[in-house]
Each structure stands twice: as structure tokens, then as C-alpha cells.
Amino acid sequence: xxxxxxxxxxxxxxxxxxxxxxxxxxxxxxxxxxxxxxxxxxxxxxxxxxxxxxxxxxxxxxxxxxxxxxxxxxxxxxxxxxxxxxxxxxxxxxxxxxxxxxxxxxxxxxxxxxxxxxxxxxxxxxxxxxxxxxxxxxxxxxxxxxxxxxxxxxxxxxxxxxxxxxxxxxxxxxxxxxxxxxxxxxxxxxxxxxxxxxxxxxxxxxxxxxxxxxxxxxxxxxxxxxxxxxxxxxxxxxxxxxxxxxxxxxxxxxxxxxxxxxxxxxxxxxxxxxxxxxxxxxxxxxxxxxxxxxxxxxxxxxxxxxxxxxxxxxxxxxxxxxxxxxxxxxxxxxxxxxxxxxxxxxxxxxxxxxxxxxxxxxxxxxxxxxxxxxxxxxxxxxxxxxxxxxxxxxxxxxxxxxxxxxxxxxxxxxxxxxxxxxxxxxxxxxxxxxxxxxxxxxxxxxxxxxxxxxxxxxxxxxxxxxxxxxxxxxxxxxxxxxxxxxxxxxxxxxxxxxxxxxxxxxxxxxxxxxxxxxxxxxxxxxxxxxxxxxxxxxxxxxxxxxxxxxxxxxxxxxxxxxxxxxxxxxxxxxxxxxxxxxxxxxxxxxxxxxxxxxxxxxxxxxxxxxxxxxxxxxxxxxxxxxxxxxxxxxx
Length: 635
Known about the structure:
GO molecular function: calcium ion binding; protein-arginine deiminase activity
Keywords: Signal
CATH topology of the largest domain: L-arginine/glycine Amidinotransferase, Chain A
Number of domains: 2
Oligomer: single chain
Signal peptide: 1-23
Strand content: 25-35%
Mean pLDDT: 87
Structural class: alpha+beta
CATH class of the largest domain: Alpha Beta
Strand order of the largest sheet: 1-3-8-5-6
Helix content: 10-25%
Low-confidence stretches: 1-48, 54-65, 391-403
Radius of gyration: 27 Å
Number of strands: 31
Organism: Corynebacterium pygosceleis
CATH architecture of the largest domain: 5-stranded Propeller
Region (Disordered): 58-94, 387-413
CATH superfamily of the largest domain: L-arginine/glycine Amidinotransferase, Chain A
């Protein structure tokens, strides 16, 4: 069991929303509210520095520009990239070559996959060493597949040259590497000593560009690369330039088709029967079992991104599995996924331990007019001072590990992770309050479902207010002695689960959840008809000395149907809910099936109780997903 799932984060809270407003905001808005509420100039200045660093001057144009050179004589030779993004380098790309950004200009990729399978995973290899092996780590083009990962540039003479003419290339070797395609079909790295001859310039030269790493902090590097060609002939020199933009990584949203689900292999405790049930429910979707993993929370240790650039035969895609800021969490075996077209890397090169930085606390909305690249959803413990520390005591008979909330600065994704997201263009995350939850991840609260509405999606949300109403109605109908969880050895009745203390605690959960749902509506433009509500009800970890002024960390009594897997646009896989059995009907499951049917979805229930639910997670927490890759520059 991954005990870190039961603790709050332990690193700087770099971004949050006002504890009073509980609505989405940008970093600067939140800094101002913190200063007003706390009067803490120290806290404000610390957070404001990060907020300013992440948001100042951001636009599709990028954070900096390369100064245009003073007018010079026409270049003796030109250097051109795929400026119009049609997959070919031609004379149509000559215009606007000196400026690239997310919206326009030539693109290159961070070449972090392993096309020649050089980086075989070996158990026990240090994490830093695992991260250091990829196709960009050497000065070799590792076969034809690796050559496809290089963005092409063309150099050719633009005037009549003497045989003495030469040209050199200059670029930022700290962020990229350029290769020269030689006459024999091999590639040679371009160095400071590389000189192009007059014959090469007349015949035309093909170059290939690879990025050495993903963009991590746009204030340090915004992903733009300027390549300068200096051509000399008859004692005169001219300069020509092209600028490229490194492709950002984009998180998958659920409008992209599910292709592969990742799970632990059958040797892990309770995994075999779970995998068999999941595989059957997935139908034609591949289930890939990963050996060598030490914990089952695959979603929390990594987030799957993708990137792309135009190619001659259409978009050229690369999948990127980014290890999130989770320290040594027993998931180094994720590096076995690295191979042709798949890279594995670290978001933070010196990772700490931060539950709010887990992959389950990072989801993505589909593109909208306001956010054409999609939008990240993150969770922040906005009321950490209200959370009581737990010493392992429980209410309801299901014991699990304790929860320590930490300080107010320890309840948000790390600064490094937020800077990484901002570098990819996710500068305006939608922020939800996770203060009331033991694990505290947004995938416990919301699931995006494609839909034929104006937005293109609906939201499935966990609603303890609906849970309260349904349980009250059942008790009023004489079912108070019915078990809340219809599973062997579970004894908590509906009456016990809704006693005075539980009602008092759930009042907080209901208030926070209502505000989160209101935030989701306001920030997405969705109406109530676009919200599918699932009845949530929680168990809590309690002190010996109960304090009615505190929130006690909450986890779902029943398997949480919101934490599921979208199989396709008509099928949703939910954890089997084991809800109250009334005359042979699971009332929670029945409610979900009816609500989802109205939205056009069939629900298939998968029993994850022993494998995942006992550890305070469900289907989404215990798996990860590869989806189809939609080129970011076409959206």
C-alpha cells in the first residue's frame, strides 16, 4: 500500500485559490487575496515572485523575442524551416522565418524517445540514471525512425558563389542539437567547427534539429531556437536566420480515443482477478500489464502527455510519460515503457514527495475557444488549517493509514510542476478545493465525458449533497438497518453512517463540493443539464479527542464511481459501487446507470474493492492510459 496517498503534500504551495472565494483564479489574484486575509507580506512576496515568473508577459507569442538584425545585403545563402507547418520545406516558407511561437513558425521536438532500444530498463538503476538515457542523450541519429524525430531545415545558395565560399551555423547547443545529412545518407552533428562548402551550398544542405529536453520553466527558456547561417564569399559575409518553436507537451483529454490501459502485472497482490475483470470490460482496448512495479497507483506516479510536429506524411507524434513529483515512489519500472515513439522523463529533476503533485490531481479539459490548447484541472487544499491530523482511528470500521495535513505551504502541486505546466501553455489552471479529502486528488471529484452539447463535454461529479438526500430517503422508507457498503465484513448501517457527527462533518464536504461544482460550471460555461451527479458519502479518520471545529480527512465509503475509465464515447467503466441493496438493487449503481444512460453512456461495473478500494483508490487511480494523439498545432 502506498502510504503517501494518505498524506498531504510536503513541498511549497506554489499556486492556489482564495480560501474565501473557492473559485478558479490566476496566481496573481490569489497572492492579492492572501495578503488581504493574512496580512503576511512574507508569504505574499514569496508566492508573488513565483506567480509573476509564471504569468508575466505570457501570450501565444512567447515570453521573449529575438531582435531583428539591422537591414543588410541580401543573403548569399538562406536557411529555411517548415514555417507554414505543412510538413515540407519549400520556398513558400521563406516569409516570417525569423519569428516562431505556439501559433506560427517552424516546430521541433524534444527527442526523448528510444528508437533503437538502447535504454533497456534494469531494476535497481537509480532514477536519475534512468532519466538520462534517450535519443537526445548522444550525438548520433539512432536509425531511420530517429531521423523522423528531427525537424528539417534547408540551406541553399541564394546568389552565385565562388568556389571559395563557406558558411557556418550558430545555435543554442544547450537546448538543441543540429545534424547535417551527408552524401552517404548518414547524419553528422553540427559543431562550432562545421563548415559548409560552396558545393554543398549550391546543391542544397539538409539539416535535422532535435530538442535535448522538454520545456521546464519558460522564464529560463521559452522553447524558441534561433539558427544563424553566416555565409562568406569574396571577403563579404551575410547573415540569414530561422527561428523554431519547440513543441509543447499536451495532456490527454477524454475526447481522444482510448488505445491502451496500463496496469500492474498479475504477480501483484489481488491484481490477477482485477486485471481479468478489467480486460473483459475493455473489449478491444489493449490492457498492458507492467512487471516490476512496487505500488499500484500508476495514475499518481506519472502523467501521460503527447507532442507532435508536421511531417511529410502527416503529423509526427511522440508520447511522453512524465514522472510527476513523487520522489522514489516504487514506480521506476515505468521506464520500461520508453521505446520508439515513447519517451519517459521527470517533471522535476530533483523530485520531492508531494501528494498534490500526483497524476491523479492533474486532469485536462478539452479545448475551448477560451483555452484552445485545453485546460489543466488541479486540486489545492485551500483550507489546510481546518484539517485535523489523524492517528489512524476510523469511523465506520474500515481502517487505513493516517493523514497529516502539513502546513498551508504544503498543499499544492510543487513550484517545479506548475512551472512545467506553464511552459507547455497551461498558465491558467482550473483550481478545485480538495481540503476535505484524505487523498485529495481531483480525479476523486470530477470526470470529463465527451458529449454532443455546445461545449463538447459533460462532467460526472461526486456530490455528497445528493448522497445525503438519497440516504435520508432510504432511512425514511425504513431501510436504516441496511448496510451502506454491501460487501462481506462491512457492518456500517445507513443510520450509523448518517449519525450526528457524520452529518456535521459532511456539512463541510457538501459546502466545498457545491462550491467546486459551481466553479466548474462558471469556468466551463456548462449548465446543470451538463452535470451528472453521483451520490458520494464518506468515512473519516478521527482523533481520540474529537474536535467539531475541524475537518476530518474523508474517503469514499463505497467505491467511487467518478474515479473510472472512459472506454469510448458510449461506454464508461466504473468501479463496482457495492451500494445499499434494496430489494436486490444497488441503489447507487442504479442511479448512475440511469443518469449516464440519459447522457448516452452504458456503464460497465468492474470490481476493484480488494485491489484498489481498500487502499483508498479506484479504477482511475490504479491505471494509466494511452489515448490517440491530436496534434496540438491543429487545435
